[in-house]
Amino acid sequence: MDYPKSVPSVGLVNGKFVDESPVNGTPGSLIPSSWGNAVTDEILSVIRSTNVVPAESNNAQLTDAIVSIADLRASQAVSKAVAQATESAAGVAKIATQAQTNLGVDDTTIVTPKKMAGAVQGQALVAFTTAGTAPQFTLAPVPAITAYTANQRFQVKFHSAGAGSDKMNISGLGVKNIMQYDTSGNKVAAVIQGQLTDVVYDGTDIVLLDQLPSAFGVTPPQFDNSSRLATTSFVQGVGGQFSSVVALSSSATLTAAHAGALIVGSSNVSTVNVTLPLTSTMPAKCVIRFWNYGNAMMTLACTGSDTIVVPYVMAALSVPTGSSVTLVSAYGVWYAIDMSGIGVGQTWQNMTAARAMNTNYINNTAHPIMVSYAGQGSAGASLLAAVVGGSNVSSVTLASTSNGTATAIVPVGASYSMAQSSGIMVSWWELR
Questions:
Q1: Overall CATH class of domain 232-337
Q2: Helix (H) and strand (E) counts in the chain
Q3: Which pTM does this prediction carry?
Q4: Please, what is the angle between helix 33-48 and helix 61-81, to 10°?
């Protein structure tokens, strides 16, 4: 593009257009239509190349178009000179969005620490839910793994319970056994209960990192009253089940460690004297059971000021052959419960020399006893009555010089006597 120098009579002065000068009488330059249209079309072409509609009243369109074209050419020049950055070549790359970072499949953008933190906190690349039907579970991580590699780790939510000997297929690469470690460190088939857990491929199996619950617990101290779980050993130690069975053929002193035990008398020769532990050395309601199967007597003696209540209060208690009794501790007192009934471990004993009619006695044994009395009336009628706890429980009228009997069962701790208005005692026997 240039001035129309080749057109004759254009009237250029020094190669440029000039105006007409009436004063000097010189004509102005002529502009040919072909040249004027060519100049205008070229200018409009530049403006239109920037997708702008030409406006006759806007004298800045050409400048704007030139600036826009210059910017575009500069950007194109930079893009041509600087390539996409890769692992092996320097270049330019965009910043990845959070969605791109979480998806983990774009390999042309750059991840910022903030986007990475969001992906890590949300476990976007490792937390997935299983599919499939037990025992064949599937897992489809995104992006998919291309091969099993030792130490691959995922957070897995099992969508259902397992069926036993379960397996998992990750990214369609083939099934692997789902295993778990027990408390002994053995790798065994995992127990799947729809749990959320971490799994690691160890090179052979897919291993749940949650250890199987132990079948063995830690036994709390005896008499522990905290909220800790009670093991079977602890339950036995406080009397829920015999904590131990101790056979005694000779005298012995018990301690608090015997709580919950069964103490068995086994002597056939001499009396087995058992000294009880102080009730203050153990909590209330502790239980010790005693049973004597030996031919010799077994006696239970309190320590210190403790007493045994049967309900008669005593410092010692006899346990004859074949008899049993349970003692329960309670703040200075041993309560005797579950004692053998009448006749168990008892024998008929002739008490005639140790008893007198019309005299009160107390059953201070640990068991009910039975009394059988025979009396003879004097001249004239006599009244014979068995009195237990102040009540006549059995009576008979004796004719002149005739014999008669009265019997009674005497509870533990009750008073008893044989009341005879006249005459003499013939015999007095007690089952005790």
A1: mainly beta
A2: 5, 28
A3: 0.45
A4: 50
